[in-house]
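Q: How do we represent a protein-ligand complex in a form that can be generated token by token?
A: Start from the inputs.
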Amino acid sequence: MSGTLYGTGLGPGDPELMTLKAARLISGADVVAYPALAGAESFARSIAAAHLKDGAVELRLDVPMTVARGPAQAAYDAGAVEISGVLEQGTDVVFLCEGDPLFYGSFMYIQARLSGRFTVEVVPGVNSISASVAAAGPPLVARNEVLTVIPGPLAADDMRARIEGADAVAIMKVGRHLGKIRDVLDGLGLVDRATYVERATLAEQVVLPLADAPADAPYFSMILVTKGRDQWL
Ligand SMILES: C[S@@+](CC[C@H](N)C(=O)[O-])C[C@H]1O[C@@H](n2cnc3c(N)ncnc32)[C@H](O)[C@@H]1O
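Then emit the structure tokens for the protein with S-adenosylmethionine bound:
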């Protein structure tokens, strides 16, 4: 009998936002796996740290963040081989994933490689949009409004068109794209409707009107835009 692969969502950073199910699986796991940026502490591991069992084997996947997909794909290939070796021996593996595992989550790359051969169970988590909205305050969408989720690396023209067609917008993966995003929103007259949220739910959380946001944004930041829905409330 092979082991089961669990893809656990850990929420946006505050360990109290982890589900009871994820905490139970992690605290019982003999083997956990998690992604990390090369050379850095794993954010996913830091969220789960208090639940890790003494002596648990940790499989760390060093995933380079490069524009080219090849290096990251190679890291997931290697990680999948390592995880499959454990599963083949009949041991479960609990994969730690920040936020929700299947919402821009790293777990999907492991799931895609292993789901044909092993039983895979996904435990959903609180995603970073929900966390950022809770921190920022105004509700994001109401009634029949359309929410558009935009990755920061999108080209400015594409981003502008998608924002124009949306009622509310969550722009993720802000980081080095902050200047471009600011310019697009400025051109649309939406800077005053935009909120900048950095590291939501963590002690270092920052929430600011976009106009007051710092010049440099970290990767774990988001911009929320509501276009004026006060008539529903
Ligand atoms: C690869 S995606 C991971 C999304 C995650 N799986 C989720 O469910 O939210 C990374 C992006 O999520 C957003 N993000 C994740 N955690 C965040 C947090 N605590 N505060 C603000 N944004 C966050 C940032 O935009 C970041 O660039």
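The chain has a mean pLDDT of 95. Residues 12-13, 98-100, 103-105, 127-128, 131-132, 172-174, 197, 199-201, 219-222 surround S-adenosylmethionine (CB under 6 Å).
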